[in-house]
Amino acid sequence: MPITKKSGRQEVIAATADFTFADVTSGAYAAAVDLPAGAIVVGGHLAITTIFNSATDDKFSIGDKVGAAAASNTTYAAQSADITAPGAVAIVPTGKKYSASATVGVVWTGTGAAPTAGAGRLTVLYIVDGRAAFSHG
Fold first, then answer.
1. pLDDT tens digits for 89-129?
2. Residue at 136 is within a domain
3. How many separate domains does the chain show?
């Protein structure tokens, strides 16, 4: 039996959230982007636009949280190496489809004195299963 082709299509949805050192607490999940039920993350990245200046090092991971469940701090990117220059940490898609609304967020871990500078932008690319914006063919 052949695969049943569907003509419905949708664009990839991009959501961004900007944050600074004042918006995050070391080791704690910080929700940044809301996702609807049925969302599937297909890409994105965490761009560090201004280096965090903790005394020793600054690392980031990208996680998620569904409803009242505990956050998973490394769903899309494990703790990065110390970020000492502006750059990006890629989201690694997992194919996970959310059965309920969820958030994608960051976990910053700083060592040493608290930072007085630092900023970033989380960009999450996703589709919503079953949604069709237009038809092809």
1. 899 999 999 999 999 999 999 888 889 999 999 999 999 99
2. no
3. 1
Expressed as residue numbers, the domain containing 49 is 11-129
Beta-bridge partner residues of 104:
33, 64
Report yes or no on 1 lying in a domain.
no
pLDDT in tens, 21-69: 999 999 999 999 999 999 999 999 999 999 998 888 888 999 999 988 8
DSSP assignment letter at 129: T
> What DSSP assignment string belongs to 10-43?
-PPEEEEEEEEGGG--TT-EEEEEEE-TTEEEEE
Contact 124, 41 (CB under 8 A): yes
Q: Is residue 84 part of a domain?
A: yes
